[in-house]
Every structure is written in structure tokens, then in C-alpha cells.
Design brief:
alpha+beta, 37-stranded mixed β-sheet, two-stranded antiparallel sheet, 13 helices
């Protein structure tokens, strides 16, 4: 920057000095050709470059040079360094005679500078400056009273300055440059106005930006380090984004600035021309920045700056460096009170933003530090009316892949406020209080740990109400554990605990797109329940059930994902106790269920483990309808359901109607292996009959191989002292039933009848 400023001052002073010295005697003694020759020869010796001038003349109005060209070093074969279409200079002869350097007018049109930087401090004009500096005698370094220098009127138009950095591959051009000023002085303030189009070409930014400025300068006697500038009005265009800049600058070589930048409201679509990755169609509020900064040729340092953007305000400080390499270290604080908003408006413009989120009004504050290698946000505080959440995070960009870590603290979280963000949660009417703290990290895989307590939680779903829930939630990489200590389900007391292992892989990695990964996980769940009573007055309507089934079936990509990733598996263990059960097809009391099952899947092909249950004092009514709606009920009550179907299929009138029967005990114990269900024990006790079942059921194919032994009791109209057996084959939907003839014959009444018949037959044969 220092070399550039010195070059421009040297170049301007050189031209003024040459023109003034020549003018006194050239007009009288030399023709236009001689003037041109002397000017060219003199400038060539000083600049060590080729110079051409189409014409040079001295008129009553002053000097006029047309089509002035100065080559790159050493000649025009290397290109043009400076060119000007026309240069007009009108001196003030009266002031010159008084030993004052005053020019009435300087008008330049079509001036073009071509500045090239090969490497640090090496420019295409470096050959000019050292010679000029070396020629200065030592005494010139002493402070002297500056010569009074005034240009009454200066005008530059249709010009350009082009800067090219070969080392950093950056091009900056000031095109369509115009500059106008009156009473230019080295010692006094003078005003100016300028306009140009800034064109930038680099790997960071490409674009054209129109700029206009109105301000004043004080050159401090030519001491650039002490010079000052005031920008009264600066307007710039960043595409369709309009900006204004006002401020003061001291030390024009490396400015110390106090400035105010104002950006009018804009749409992010205007940024896509320069930064294609920025989401478009998002309206942004106006921005106002008051900044105190230091600008050098290599960097800019923000000492203390404040900003306001819509409902947000804050301050920032730090440094941005672009030479020798691009780097930055910025600190910021932000505060704001944000109104209610609907994400649908943003989602229409930014597809990545979920739609229909109803974000309540909230206040937020944050502190952040940003560098190329990391970003730290600590802390972020978010406050709703009854919710206070704080979090901090660190993102590490160094190395391969992004790394993240942080904490989330819920001092108090009102569930109804958080759930209100999701319109779908409204139907569940959730509420309650959460308090807890969590830590998270990501380094090729996610990690999370922490705990939270919940109190007075309530919600409703599927015509059931949950209320007064309290307990704790513990999370780690290995497991998620929910311990619900107290609560009510439909005003009935209940407690539960759930532990889930291998849950974390369900969280996709940042930017992950592998949907099939969800179908490759193997959850391990331990579930325990104590419930006073469970009641379901009616099953979901068939239309709703069909609609849900159709949605799952038709979900795009699901079939492909399952085929790609295979079945997902669930392991389930635990124990459940229910004091009373009341369903449209089934009632019971004191139900106890234990289960330890592995590889539960939709097709049940890999299921193994064991399960048992016991239910007392209830009634069965057409269990087949219940089995159609709940697969777990179908598996658990397979033998009883088959008994009901077999009683209809069997070609016998001695079996009672098992479709409607009161029972005193239903008990079952099953073992599973590769989808085959072995019935170790299945008992149905009622006042009409005692039923025991055994055998196997292939769950994936529903092939049956059972034997059902039924002992009828007096209430059925028939009293048996021994059971009658039935063999059940076929499939669940189409069973075939065959009586065990041997068990029929073994009935005492049948056996007695047969014996009596044989005795009578023998007596007849004797006769």
C-alpha cells in the first residue's frame, strides 16, 4: 500500500513539475513537434520506458497532450503501463510568478493505469521508485515547510485503474472512473466526488459493484501517514443490495477508521450471483454497522464494532488477513427479541427448512468466535415465556471431516411451549416441565450423554390420557433409560421403565443420505410396566387403519431401503403387570407377562427367545377380530384363537361355543427359534371346559401342527373325566381339524357303551 501511494504521488508531482518548467519558455522557442520531442525524451529518461504522444501543444488556455502512452518496462512490446486520451493543464501564471504552484484547471480523460504485483513489494513500477528515492539528497528527509500547491479545478473521467496480483491470483479494477474536486491543496481541506465500478476476480469473490463517493481530504502537506479523509456519503451496489458508508479515516496509508455501514433490506437471491451456495429467496432485514477498524494492505482489524439487524443487535471484533494467506479470527456477541414466526414462509424459499413450524416469540443471546479452523459458540441462551435453555458448541474444521462438541442445559423447559412449535403435536395436548443437561460430540460418529428429570407431564393419544407423569431420563452412547416413577393412564395409576440400547446409530451422520441405515439397526429394549387398569372401548375405525397402512406401503423409497438394508431387528425383554384389562373382545384381571425375545422383525423369520403370561378372571369374545388388529395379541393368544376356530370346524356337536366364554385362567409359555413357536404350555380354564394345547406354529408361514385337549365340564352340558383331543393342521387362515379317535374311545362313557355293546354281541353269538 505504501508503494502504491508513493507511486501515485510521485507520478502526479512529476507531471506537474515537468509541465510547469516547460511552459515558461516552450511556447516562445519551440513548435508543437519540438514540445512533443522534448517531453518524450525527458520523460523517457526519468521513467526508463518508451513514451509516445500523438500531439502536444501550448495554447493560451494551457498545455494539451493527446493520446499519451507509457510502456511497461522497457518498451511497448511488454504492453501499456499508463495511457491517457487527453490531458489539459491550465496554470495560474500570476501565482507562478509569485513562486506559488497553482493550477487553474486539470482535465484528464481516458486515463488508464495497469498495476501488476509479481510478489510482495515487487510491482511493475518498482524500477521507478528506487531511482527517484536515491536521487534525493539526505537533507530532504528533514521536515520542511510544504510548498503551497493548489489546483483550483480537477476533473478526471472515462478512466480506469487495474491491479493484478500474480502471486495470489487476484484482479481488482476501478472501471468507468470519474473524479472531480475544487481547490485541491496539500495543506488545506478540499472536497471531492468520485464514481466507479469496482470489479473483482478471485477464488473468493467475483463480481462488479458500482460505487459513488462524496467527501473531503486533507493531505497534511503531503505526509500520507497524517492525511485524513471524511466520507460524507458513499453508496455501493452489491448486485441488488444497496449499501451506504459514512465515516472518517486517518492515515491514508494504513487508515484508522470510524465508519457507519448501512445495508438496506434485501433478499438472499441477490447473493447467489456472488456466492452460489447461499440459499435464495429469503428476505433479510436491514443492517447497520458502526465500526472502528484499522486497514492495511494485508489486513483489517476491527477494534470494536456494533451492529443491528432487524430484531438482533450486538458487537464484534477481530481481524481478517488476506496477505500472505487468507485468514481470520472474529469475535461476536448477539442479542435479540424475536417475534412469532412461521417457518412455512422461509421453507417456501429455502427447501431445507421444515415447513409449518410455529416458532413462538423468544429472546436469545450468544457469544461466538470464528476462525478458519474452528468456531466456538459459548453460551447461547434462549428464553421463552416459561422456558430457559442454554447451550454451547465447538465446531472443528481442521483435518478431514467436521468435528463437533458441546452441551445443552435445560434450566426449565415447558413442554407445551416446545411442542407448540410442531402443529402435529397440538392434538396430543402435551405439557409438563423438563430439567436437565446433556453433552454431545461428533467425530465420524455421534456421541451423547446426560440426564433430565420430568414432572407433571401430560399428553393424550389414541383416546387415552396420560397425566401426572414424573421420572427421569438418562442418555449415554450405550443406552437410553427412561424411568417413569409415577403417573396415571386414563386416571389409573401406573409406572414404567424403558431402556434402549444401540439407539444412537439411528442418528444419521451430518449430511448423511443413507436412508437404508435405519433398517440395519438392532435395537435392544427392556420394557417394564405396572398398570392398574387398561381399557379400550373401541378399536380404531377400519378406514383409519387402512389409510395408515396404505401410507406406509406407498411411502417412496421404503421398499428399496428395506431390500437394500434388510430387516431391522428388535430385542425385547422385561415384565409387565396389568391389574385389569378391558378390550372389546377380551377382558381379564391380574395379568402378568414376561418376555425375553430376540430378533423381532416384521416377518418374524429370525425370532427366538421365550415368553410367558398369565391372566385371570375374564371373558373371551371373538378373539379373531382382536388378532387381526394386533399382531402381538395374535401371537400370544394363538392357541385360544385356534380353539375358537377349531370348535367351529370340528365335525362334532359336543364342543361348546368358545367364541363367547368366561374363563378363570389363561396361561401360556412359548419358546421361539428361527420363527418357529413351540408351545410349552397353553391352558384355558373355564366353568365349561379345561383346555390344554401343545405343538408348533411356524409364524412366518402360519403353518399349524397343534394338538388341543379339551375336558368338558358340567356347565357345558357334558361332563368328561378325560380330555378329548383335536389335531389342528393347515394354516391359521384355513385350519383343518381332526378328532383324536383314541381320546374319544378313552372317554369312560364311550368305553362303557362299547363294552356293553360287545357283551350283548357275545351273548347273541352264544345263542
Amino acid at each position: 500500500m505504501r508503494k502504491l501511494v508513493k507511486f501515485f504521488l510521485y507520478f502526479a508531482g512529476f507531471f506537474v513539475l515537468v509541465l510547469l518548467c516547460l511552459f515558461i519558455f516552450l511556447k516562445v522557442y519551440f513548435t508543437s513537434e519540438k514540445i512533443k520531442k522534448i517531453a518524450v525524451d525527458y520523460a523517457s529518461r526519468k521513467l526508463k520506458r518508451e513514451i509516445s504522444i500523438e500531439s502536444a501543444s501550448l495554447r493560451l488556455t494551457g498545455f494539451v497532450f493527446k493520446n499519451l502512452k507509457i510502456s511497461e518496462y522497457p518498451d511497448f512490446k511488454k504492453g501499456n503501463f499508463v495511457s491517457a486520451r487527453e490531458l489539459r493543464v491550465i496554470p495560474s501564471w500570476k501565482d507562478i510568478l509569485r513562486k506559488k504552484v497553482k493550477i487553474d484547471s486539470v482535465k484528464i480523460s481516458g486515463l488508464h493505469f495497469n498495476l501488476i504485483q509479481a510478489k510482495e513489494n515487487v510491482f511493475n513500477f518498482s524500477d521507478i521508485l528506487p531511482a527517484a528515492e536515491a536521487a534525493r539528497p539526505p537533507e530532504e528527509k528533514q521536515e520542511k515547510i510544504p510548498v503551497e500547491f493548489v489546483i483550483s479545478n480537477f476533473e478526471l473521467k472515462d478512466s480506469s485503474v487495474k491491479y493484478k496480483n500474480l502471486q495470489n491470483l487476484i484482479e481488482v479494477s476501478f472501471n468507468s472512473l470519474s473524479f472531480a474536486s475544487k481547490n485541491i491543496s496539500l495543506t488545506k481541506n478540499f472536497s471531492f466526488n468520485t464514481a466507479f465500478t469496482l470489479e473483482v476476480k478471485s477464488k473468493y469473490l467475483n463480481g462488479k459493484f458500482p460505487v459513488s463517493m462524496l467527501g473531503s481530504l486533507n493531505m497534511a502537506g503531503g505526509k500520507i501517514e497524517e492525511a485524513e479523509a471524511v466520507l460524507k456519503k458513499t453508496e455501493a451496489g452489491f448486485g441488488k443490495i444497496k449499501c451506504r458508508l459514512e465515516g472518517s479515516f486517518k492515515n491514508l496509508l494504513e487508515p484508522d477508521a470510524k465508519a457507519t455501514l448501512t445495508v438496506e433490506p434485501f433478499n438472499t437471491t441477490s447473493l447467489k450471483e456472488f456466492f452460489p451456495a447461499v440459499p435464495g429467496k429469503t428476505p433479510m432485514p436491514g443492517i447497520k454497522i458502526d465500526s472502528n477498524f484499522k486497514l492495511t494492505a494485508k489486513s483489517v482489524s476491527f477494534r470494536r464494532s456494533t451492529f443491528k439487524a432487524g430484531p438482533a443487535n450486538g458487537r464484534f471484533s477481530g481481524m481478517i488477513v488476506w496477505n500472505p494467506a487468507f485468514n481470520y479470527d472474529l469475535n461476536a456477541e448477539i442479542n435479540g427479541n424475536f417475534p412469532e414466526m412461521d417457518s412455512t414462509h422461509i421453507g417456501k424459499r429455502v427447501p431445507a427448512v421444515p415447513k409449518n413450524l410455529k416458532i413462538p416469540s423468544f429472546s436469545a443471546s450468544a457469544r461466538a468466535r470464528l476462525t478458519p479452523s474452528f468456531m466456538i459458540v459459548n453460551p447461547v441462551k434462549i428464553n421463552l415465556r416459561e422456558t430457559a435453555i442454554s447451550l454451547d458448541t465447538k465446531l472443528n474444521f481442521a483435518g478431514q471431516g467436521m468435528k463437533a462438541s458441546g452441551t445443552v442445559n435445560m434450566d426449565r423447559a415447558r413442554i407445551s411451549e416446545l411442542a407448540g412449535i410442531l402443529p402435529a403435536a397440538k392434538d396430543f395436548n402435551p405439557d409438563g416441565i423438563l430439567r436437565g443437561s446433556f453433552k454431545y460430540s461428533y467425530d465420524k460418529k455421534a456421541s451423547i450423554s446426560g440426564a433430565a428429570d420430568f414432572t407433571d407431564v401430560k399428553f393424550a393419544c389414541f383416546n387415552h390420557s396420560f397425566s401426572n407423569l414424573s421420572g427421569s431420563l438418562t442418555v449415554s452412547d450405550d443406552a437410553l433409560h427412561l424411568n417413569q416413577k409415577t403417573g396415571k393412564l386414563n386416571n389409573e395409576n401406573f409406572s414404567s421403565s424403558v431402556s434402549v440400547k444401540n439407539y444412537l446409530p439411528l442418528v444419521p451422520p451430518f449430511g448423511g443420505t443413507d436412508n437404508a441405515a435405519l433398517f440395519r439397526k438392532h435395537l435392544d429394549i427392556n420394557f417394564n410396566l405396572n398398570l392398574a387398569k387398561f381399557e379400550l372401548k373401541e378399536f380404531p375405525k377400519p378406514a383409519q387403519e387402512q389409510k395408515t397402512a396404505g401410507t406406509d406401503k406407498d411411502k417412496p423409497g421404503k421398499k428399496a431401503d428395506e431390500s437394500k438394508g434388510g430387516n431391522s431387528f428388535i430385542d425385547l425383554s422385561g415384565k409387565s403387570r396389568i391389574g385389569a384389562i378391558s378390550l372389546p373382545n377380551f377382558t381379564g384381571n391380574n395379568a402378568v407377562m414376561t418376555y425375553n425375545l430376540k430378533n423381532i422383525s416384521a416377518d418374524l423369520k429370525n425370532l427366538y427367545g421365550n415368553a410367558s403370561f398369565e391372566i385371570k378372571e375374564g371373558r373371551l369374545t371373538n378373539l379373531y377380530e382382536l388378532a387381526q388388529k394386533f399382531k402381538i395379541a395374535k401371537v400370544a393368544l394363538y392357541p385360544v384363537i385356534l380353539l375358537q376356530k377349531a370348535s367351529k370346524t370340528a365335525k362334532s356337536k359336543f364342543l361348546p361355543d368358545f367364541d363367547n366364554i368366561n374363563y378363570s385362567l389363561i396361561e401360556g409359555a412359548y419358546a421361539f427359534s428361527e420363527g418357529l413357536m413351540k408351545i410349552d404350555k397353553s391352558v384355558l380354564n373355564s366353568e365349561m371346559a379345561i383346555v390344554n394345547s401343545s405343538g408348533n406354529i411356524n409364524l412366518p408361514t402360519e403353518n399349524l401342527d397343534l394338538k388341543i385337549n379339551t375336558t368338558l365340564l358340567k356347565a357345558s352340558g357334558i361332563s368328561m373325566s378325560a380330555p378329548v383331543g383335536m389335531y389342528v393342521k393347515g394354516t391359521f387362515s384355513n385350519p383343518s381339524v381332526k378328532l383324536d379317535v383314541k381320546s374319544v374311545i378313552e372317554q369312560p362313557a364311550v368305553k362303557k357303551t362299547i363294552v356293553q355293546g360287545l357283551e350283548k354281541l357275545l351273548e347273541r353269538l352264544k345263542k
